[in-house]
Amino acid sequence: MLAYYVHDLSPFLIRFNESVGLRWYGLAYVAAFIAGYFVIRHLAQRGWCDIPPDKVGDFVTGCAIFGVLLGGRLGYMLFYNLGEFLQNPLIIVKVWDGGMSAHGGMLGVLFYCLWYSWRNKISWRNIGDNLVVAVPIGLFFGRVANFINGELYGRVTSVAWAVQFPKELYNAPDGTVQLAVSEAFTLNPAWTTVEAINENVAHSPALRAQLAGSLSPRHPSQIYEALLEGVLLFGIMWFLRTRFRLPNGVLTGAFFIGYAILRSFCELFREPDAALTGPFTRGQVLSLLIFLIGLGFLVSARLRPAYPRGK
Predict the structure, then answer these.
(1) Which of 103, 171, 172, 273 is the most core-located residue (most Cβ within 10 A)?
(2) Edge-to-edge strand order for the sheet containing 163-164?
(3) For position 1, what pLDDT does the model report?
(4) For the chain, what is the domain count?
């Protein structure tokens, strides 16, 4: 039998106490916003983006706050946790408990760009065409952070690069949980809960060795998504933006369609995190909406062609 890697990465880069510290997930957002600023500013300086270079910082900050953070959090509540949200709407501010939706973030950014273009008399489609060049960078950092956190893991598999994620125990059958807890108890009587196991797995090789016998090997689907939705999609967007003079809206449409296809493909390897709709996961259903939005942008670019002011 293969000896699979038991995930043992800490979500903290620096930790001050049990719940406070510098988390990789937060750093991923910071890195994404900084990279997005430099990418869009570069495109503005080259004449591809209608936003003046000195205004890019304000635009990216607005996207970060009102689009990514607010849209991503609200999207998660509506798409994946609606029941609890209706019972207690204030949980939307508990971002430290996790819960962000990539689809929600995209829709949030979409509406923010619509408002920004109206406010500043700039082409909505042009803003989108440059923003989507930077978005895959954020998707890459976010999925890498998901892997470090050991969350949003993949389906059970036997591939050689499979990973065993201790957070699987939060949703595992009672028998699997009881076995893991009983084995952990033999190592340390204080390890009597799933929380304790996940808290200490990074520091105990013996605990990891025991968990290897009870955890399922799974696809590291977060890495698949980082490479496809992040690296591959960025390469495509950068190539189209810098090598072709395309009507405003074409890149935005291509991004939404490309993301929908790649996300739907990755969902085949990712453990569903919500109830299925027929044979389709929640991510695939939401990707259909994103795909249709992308088609709308392509039709709009075809019917009303316009080009970047500097090109």
Answers:
(1) 103
(2) 5-6, 163-164, 217-218
(3) 52
(4) 2
